[in-house]
Design goal:
about 150 residues; alpha+beta; Ribosomal Protein L9, domain 1; Ribosomal Protein L9, domain 2; 3-stranded antiparallel beta sheet; about 35% helix; about 30% strand; elongated
Length: about 150
Amino acid sequence: MKVFLKKNVEKIGKMGEIITVNDGFARNYLMPRDLVVEITEQNLAFYQKKSESFKNQKEVVAVETSKLSEAIKNLKFSLKKKMHDDGKLYASVGQNEIVALLADKGISISKSQVIVNKSIKTKGTHEVTIKLTSQLQPTFNLTILPE
């Protein structure tokens, strides 16, 4: 059965694609959850146009996110924090602070897009990853200095 995906479905496809799935899977899982619309001869042309417009939008978004990715890769930040004599911070650097640093440079992201491998609790240089998409995850260096 040919269907048009209304939403992203993991391991099946992305929103706006026309795909072929088993009849039972479409009728018992995808349709009751309002994830797809069945493609018939009457609505085939309509959904093909809609699919093409989704592809065009995806291309525009991909270009913009790749530009944003390059901008993030070229950034270097230094942050002054209060710390103990042994170089440990009083409080770790959180995602909110990283979002605020990026906002100062004109880059707006959400807190959930910031990925830090280990919590930042010491002075020195730390690598921070920003998850723009599942494929685009630029990293930048954040240097923590004593105040």
